[in-house]
Amino acid sequence: MPMRDEHKQGGELQAAFDAARSSRPEPSANLMARVLADAQAVQADQRVTPSPRAPRGYPQQWLDTLGGWPAVAGLSAAGVAGVWLGLGPMAGVSDAVASYLGMSVPPAYSVDVMPGAELGLAWEEGAL
Amino acid sequence: MPLDAMQDVTDEALLVLFANGEPAAARALTLRLTPKAFGHAARLLGNRAEAEDVAQEALLRLWRVAPEWRQGEAKVTTWLYRVVANLCTDRLRRSGRGVALDAVPEPEDEARGPLDKMQAEARADALQTALDGLPDRQRQAVVLRHIEGMANPEIAEIMEISVDAVESLTARGKRALSAALEGRREELGYADEG
Hints:
The structure holds two protein chains of two kinds. Chain A has helices at residues 6-22, 29-48, 58-66, 68-87, 91-100, 117-124. Chain A is mostly helical. The longest helix of chain A has 20 residues, at 29-48. Chain B has eight helices and no strands.
């Protein structure tokens, strides 16, 4: 069979496409009902389980209030440091605490930050 | 009662409403998308019962993915056509392409005479038979371009290929369809039209 004009062939194919467009397969009422039932079931599932997390008990809520495990770890570290300072204090720290409590402690060293202050005070009071 | 009670709302916005539990969104999306999913599946499979199963499965996947849908990333219809096509391809591969043509078309134009309607049905059936003979990707590209009426960039997005590849697929598909319909010119009434 000789090959016919491409333009004519294109026109026939276009007519076939037009016919196909005008006779689009339509879904049955049964399919529409099945799809809608699926949609409603999925929505119902999502409403029933808004969150996958289990109910949280009091200890977990307390932990959450503190800021979770990272915060508790920080608190623990601070506590351990406090115990260590109490049991084995450095000499400087020991002196400072004793001084704070009013106990006499021989100064390990002293620095006069205002060397002329005593002289100035004596002058003002007329001792000199 | 209108077919779609929320006509001005986009598919993407409806999907957000759906994920928020809005019953009207479920109904509107079902009415809007089921014909598209089913129609495309019927064209690709040539089998009405299988097309119904594919459409239901594709939409079920959409309902489930709704809470994680990311706005502005893809159109819902693009995603849906892609899922439908993938499901059809899986079925065709599993069944070895022994497809029956029972996608009975229902003419919409009631004003046409019975002879015209019969001729249009015959042409649509013949086209479907010819489409069934195309390779999967050619068939999908031709259906999306010439029956669904989509633009090449959108088809490229659905099929995840370049626009050039879409043009190549549709051109080869049309040539194959013309050749397949060539032998049925008289039967389909093309001979009378010159």
